[in-house]
Write a structure and sequence with these properties.
Layout: E1 5-12, E2 33-34, E3 39-47, E4 50-57, H1 64-78, E5 85-89, H2 98-101, H3 103-122, E6 125-135, E7 139-141, E8 165-173, E9 178-185, E10 198-199, H4 203-214, E11 219-224, E12 230-232, H5 250-259, H6 262-285, E13 296-306, H7 313-318, E14 328-338, E15 341-345, E16 349-350, H8 352-361, E17 366-370, E18 380-381, H9 384-389, H10 392-396, H11 403-419
Parallel strand pairs: 2-10, 4-5, 9-11, 15-17, 16-18
Antiparallel strand pairs: 1-3, 1-6, 3-4, 6-8, 7-12, 8-9, 13-14, 14-15
């Protein structure tokens, strides 16, 4: 086993005020200010001649051009291949609309991603790594079959499938001080709603800020786990008995959302973020088993996901290149080995059940799964069952029902191959 070195950094990627925000088709006005800045955060690990990098960005998804530019610059400056660099979008819905920002913005964003990596790379120092697991109920399944809007349509389902798992990766200096923490948890970044026009990281910003304040000088990054069917547990709808899990009513939520002042929306984001951050910090402090000699490796491959013969019209406009061939779409799978832990990068908005299945079948003791990685947004990756049920996500998906299982099987296969590397 080789000794580990680690470095971390963060760079501001907040866009200019006035440009459109992402995530809601009915929100056409540009941003009017900045509530909290957006960042590209990078962790670089090196051991035994192998180097890997994880870059998490406070954006709704990762533009292909930005990823390519970041990887190009990183490889040029360091020799680290692009296949060993993971780029993730936290899925905030109060960040820039990448398409509306234009090609120049995507290039600049890629350069800022690379800048964070290069600073982290220059800071490499001897380190030790530990893993932890906790629970948080910040999220809730949003596909209630009894939704008053329409079945399985964006309505809180506290009794539905859900995984409260919080995975923590902690990287410390050998003597004292934390270098970086990764928080891996699945929940849509939609706490603030479509009427919010201030730029923000949403609830995850409060969570990572809490950990960075607790560990001065460290960088804490959020990796959003598969959450295609997971929303926040808003507190402001449907009175509940004392001690019961808060629920929200989508039918009543929209006018309530419209009535809320901006500070009220951010108060809810802060409540949820502090809840996740508090659980993450508790888990972080309980990590006592560290090692400084982990083996590091990376592996990636391209796979094809089957696409429906008839696409939603709005998706046809977005993916002009797919009009000639609706049979499949090529996506990237990527995985990093960090001792007995693995970080898996998936494309799209993946349903939580698919992420759970990957972890269940993973050969690694600790498996971190992140969605919305390394390429353009391809929409939802639902379970086959969801297509039969209907609802928002499968109705708007470009993929065939079997695509989710294809993704799971290919991802597990990649992890198995990675586990055999020495």
């Amino acid at each position: 086993m080789a000794k580990i070195e680690a470095g971390a950094a963060k760079h501001d990627i907040t866009p200019p005020v006035g440009y459109p925000l992402a995530g809601y088709s009915n929100r056409v006005q540009g941003s009017i200010g900045v509530h909290d800045p957006l960042f590209a955060k990078a962790l670089v690990l090196r051991a035994g001649g192998e180097t890997i990098g994880i870059i998490s960005c406070d954006i709704i998804s990762t533009p292909q051009k930005s990823v390519e530019e970041a990887r190009r610059l990183i490889e040029k400056e360091t020799g680290v291949p692009g296949s060993a660099v993971m780029v993730h979008g936290t899925h905030t819905h109060t960040g820039p609309n990448n398409e509306a920002m234009g090609e120049e913005w995507k290039t600049v964003l890629g350069r800022k991603m690379a800048g964070a990596f290069l600073e982290a790379w220059r800071k490499l120092k001897p380190a030790k790594i530990g893993f932890g697991s906790g629970e948080s109920f910040v999220g809730v399944n949003r596909r209630n079959p009894s939704s008053p809007v329409k079945p399985h349509f964006l309505y809180s389902w506290p009794d539905g499938p859900f995984e409260p798992l919080v995975k923590i990766l902690r990287v410390d200096q050998l003597n004292d001080g934390t270098i970086c923490t990764i928080v891996n948890y699945g929940c849509h970044g939609v706490t603030l709603g479509p009427n919010e026009l201030l730029i923000s990281r949403d609830f995850s910003g409060y969570a990572v800020d809490l950990l960075e304040e607790a560990k001065p000088g460290s960088v804490c990054m959020f990796l959003n786990a598969p959450c295609g069917n997971v929303n926040p547990r808003w507190i402001w709808e449907i009175p509940q008995p004392e001690g019961a899990a808060p629920r929200f009513n989508w039918a009543g939520l929209k006018p309530k959302w419209n009535d809320l002042k901006s500070e009220e929306r951010f108060k809810e984001a802060e409540r949820l973020g502090n809840s996740l951050g508090g659980e993450s910090l508790k888990t972080l402090e309980q990590i006592i088993d560290f090692r400084d000699d982990f083996e590091i490796a990376s592996k990636s491959k391209e796979i094809k996901l089957p696409v429906q013969e008839v696409l939603p019209a709005w998706f046809e406009r977005r993916f002009e290149k797919m009009k000639e061939d609706y049979r499949d779409i090529t996506v990237e799978l990527q995985a990093f080995k960090i001792g007995d832990g693995a970080v898996l990068a998936l494309p799209g908005e993946v349903f939580l059940e698919l992420g759970m299945e990957i972890r269940r079948r993973s050969p690694f003791k600790h498996t971190f799964v992140a969605e919305l990685c390394n390429q353009e947004w391809i929409g939802y990756v639902p379970t086959p069952q969801a297509y039969g049920e209907g609802g928002y996500e499968p109705t708007t998906s470009i993929l065939k029902p079997e695509a989710g299982f294809v993704l799971v099987n290919e991802a597990v296969g990649l992890l198995e191959e990675l586990s055999k590397l020495h």
